[in-house]
Amino acid sequence: MTKKLNVGVVGLGRLGNLYARYFLGQIANANLVAVSDILEPVAEAFAHDHNIAKCYVDYHDLINDKDVNAVVIVTPTSNHKDVSIAAAQVGKPVFCE
Length: 97
Prior knowledge:
Helix content: 25-40%
Number of helices: 4
Strand order of the largest sheet: 3-2-1-4-5
Order of helices and strands: EHEHEHEHE
Shape: globular
Largest sheet: 5 strands, parallel
Distance between the termini: 29 Å
Strand content: 15-25%
């Protein structure tokens, strides 16, 4: 049996919301386990609406979450570098849109 990859999505804007929804069941071997957005109401609403137990305002908290195996970054381009480096520093695989 293949173990599922637990994914965290950073950034829940238009594209981030779309990517996060893919991980809710359209990608066979992945689970969405955490989301992060700088707008707390956005992160909380998405997590509540989709039964995601973990939501964060600070992406560092998502990256350092031991249950998150890989990080999907869908933030504005100006933030890609910092989020990618932070995830890489703790050994998390990164997909950056």
